[in-house]
Every structure is written in structure tokens, then in C-alpha cells.
Design brief:
The protein is an alpha+beta fold. It is built from 3 helices and 6 strands, in the order H-E-E-H-E-E-E-H-E. It has a 4-stranded mixed β-sheet. A two-stranded antiparallel ribbon has the order 1-2. A hairpin with a 2-residue loop joins strand 3 and strand 4. Helix 1 packs antiparallel against helix 2. The protein is elongated, with a radius of gyration of 15 Å.
């Protein structure tokens, strides 16, 4: 189980470094709603996480706030919010994070 945790930490740190690098810089808005905003960096961070996790575990799926990738019938599914706290990030409030979880749905015997 630690290899999954190690992979998640590696992906989260890589995305976190990207976010820190772009923090307090002008951001490209992809979409807005009454209570949320989508930034181009959300998509870039999820792509980085996807490449990292599915590069290591190509048989897994990934459910992200920015889209779904991989075989949806697989036993292992990563759940990702690449920029949890997008509104804070956009307004320069340093309270945001990268969220990654692994959900396992054992196949019936």
C-alpha cells in the first residue's frame, strides 16, 4: 500500500510546486459560475497529476475535477482535486491545496 501513498505524495508535491510557482501571478480564467471559478492552472495541475499517477499505474482510472481518464471499470480509481481552493488561489489567499485519494473497488471473485 505504501507504493500508492508514495505515488500520491510525489504527484501532489509536483502539482504543489507548480501552484506555488504561479501563485500571485495573473491567472487565465477558463470558466466562472456564481460560486466558483475555473482556472487554466487547474487543468495544467490535473494533467501533471494524471501523467504522474497513470504513468506509474496505467491500469488505474482517474476522476478529477477537470475530467475523467482511464478504464472506469478498473478496481483502482484516483480521485483528484488539483487545486482545492481555486477561489482563494485566484484572489491571492494562501489557503489552498492539492487533494488526491485512491479508491479501491475489489472485483467480485
Amino acid at each position: 500500500m505504501t507504493h500508492y501513498l508514495d505515488a500520491a505524495i510525489k504527484a501532489a508535491r509536483a502539482a504543489g510546486e507548480m501552484l506555488q510557482h504561479d501563485f500571485e501571478k495573473p491567472q487565465r480564467v477558463s470558466a466562472t459560475t456564481q460560486h466558483d471559478i475555473k482556472l487554466e492552472i487547474d487543468i495544467r495541475a490535473q494533467e501533471l497529476i494524471t501523467q504522474s499517477l497513470l504513468g506509474e499505474f496505467p491500469q488505474h482510472a482517474l476522476y478529477g475535477e477537470e475530467g475523467v481518464v482511464g478504464d472506469q471499470a478498473t478496481e483502482f480509481q484516483w480521485v483528484v482535486d488539483p487545486l482545492d481552493g481555486t477561489v482563494n488561489f485566484y484572489y491571492g489567499i494562501p489557503h489552498f491545496c492539492v487533494s488526491i485519494a485512491l479508491s479501491a473497488f475489489p472485483k467480485p471473485a
